[in-house]
Amino acid sequence: MLNRITLRQLFLILPIHFLTVLFGVFLLKLFLPTKLAIHATESIAYSTDNPFIIDFIREIFVNALYTVGVLVLPELFKLNHVPKKFINFILYPLFSFGVDSRGTGSAFGPNVVYALSCLSSKAEVSIRVFCHVFGPIFGGIIGGLIMSTMFPDDDSLHAS
User: What is the pTM for the complete model shown?
Assistant: First the structure.
């Protein structure tokens, strides 16, 4: 969305991110002792009490704000001579914002949610999980659109 990578690069990067995490979870299951592997690779349990669309919108909202916050706040803090260590205090409400009816926070990593859902001992890949996989992706896209509109890159920095 910020035109820092091409669409072709994006379609190459996304599968690599998902496959790398799948491979990492697979290796954890393979090399960790069984009792530890079961807990280390357990899927993230989200409640299914809310309608799909509610959890999906919550994921989009939280991830769009996180994307904007994590990329814009460091620059704003640098301009205003505020120590960067305070960024996490400002972003904390996003970390604790519930994206399901139980108040479970977002994983901020759709590839992790997908990999753990696919390779956990329970192996639960249901449609309900996909709002926590695609929500962060759409949230990142919306966050990128917000940044490209409200906080555009300085073109002089990218001129070669």
Answer: 0.83
